[in-house]
Amino acid sequence: MLKPRIFISHSAKDPFAETARDQLFTALAEAGFDPFLDKRRLQPGARWSNELHTWLGLCHGAVILFSADALASDWVLKETTILTYRQTLDEKFPILPVLLPGVQVADLQKPPFAALDVTATQAFKVEAPGDATASDLVTRCVELLSPLLPQLTSESPLQKIERILASGLNNIGRNNLEQVAGALNIELPPWQPDESYTQAFVRALFHQEIGVIEQVMAQLVPYPVINRDFLSRMLDILLTVYAIDPSLVTPIPAVVRCPQYERRNVAVNARFMSTGEMFIQRACWFDARWTVWRAHNRGGTDAAGNLLSELRAWGARLYNLDEDEFASADEFYDYLDAKIASLTRDSPTIVLVPDKIRNLGLVPAIRSRYEGLTFFLLRPKEAIDEQVLKSAYIVFLEPFQPELEEQWVNLRGAARKSIEPPKPS
Questions:
Q1: What single-letter DSSP state applies at residue 370?
Q2: Residue 106 within any structural domain of the chain
Q3: Both 276 and 188 in a single domain?
Q4: Cβ(307)–Cβ(363) under 8 Å?
Q5: 339 with 331: CB under 8 angstroms?
Q6: What pLDDT is attached to residue 72?
Q7: pLDDT tens-digit readout, 221-231
Q8: Which domain holds residue 100?
Q9: What is the pTM of this model?
Q10: Nearest in space to 204 (alpha carbons), one of 220, 190, 224, 189
């Protein structure tokens, strides 16, 4: 049976924190968990930031050791941001914040940790340093996590992705995958009894540079047992994992789930629709229940009306509806609107909006008609005034360098060529 993976976030520089960290790793392993500790599990030569991101997606829960050093650590802040975002996606995802000597609850209620609301979950504090107190701390952590053991055996988001990708490679055979890995010097993680070699191969790909991923695709193309559509999907996932740092997308799930529909707005300084899709897919861990729709509207005097027409046309295609099959246009649109509204209530539905539809306040009729919609605005050029963002209830994601987007598009194009079927001579 799968052992629940527990991520240990820390910045252990003082003796007490080091002792607590190492004892916690051992105690969790003995209690039936599979703990992740960077100093124990990171592979030599790995793209270590991506490997940490992988473990943050694989884990079933986390313990955050808040020492004075951890409060000042950019990496602990980043890990905490990603872990709390995991909890936004799944309220059953446990996070156990542990306050070490010198750290008070008030410290976590100040920037930069205040916005993460870490103290909303159960926290406890150790009063004095020393091995005995560290042992007490570890015992308490295990006591709090052990009752959760039975409920933490379901797939984590990245495990599900691994399984889907591995299933598409199963027919190749282990020997062939070993040859591909050997030819490209891909070092696989240590084998775990609860996973297949194919899963280990897929996980190793999450840590590779994009050039290596291109070569892997080229090596896999000749195998007739692999569907090219599958390879295309696999490439999109690997490129998204490579390109989009998960800490960039952490606000998206909270916006999508906001009960006030007028506040469901996200913006990013992107130019291409494909970049917006990558951000959304990274945010939901490629959850097929999230629907993404591209609006091609270019603004104009009736931007809202044009957008409504596009939405209805998309819905009609999605549900295979024909206006001629209804008694009247009103009956058709009433039925179509009800279907689209139902979809937006039952699953997250994000509309990618091009730059020229700049004022999302123009579409109140659409918002009230389809309350479940989230608008994702692409704003590649000028900066957006903070007051404008606030008044329009738009959450602007952390900006990235524009040249990065060009790089992603070029990489995607080059990698796609590696899986295209040969042209007839």
A1: S
A2: yes
A3: no
A4: yes
A5: no
A6: 92
A7: 888 888 888 99
A8: 5-152
A9: 0.84
A10: 189
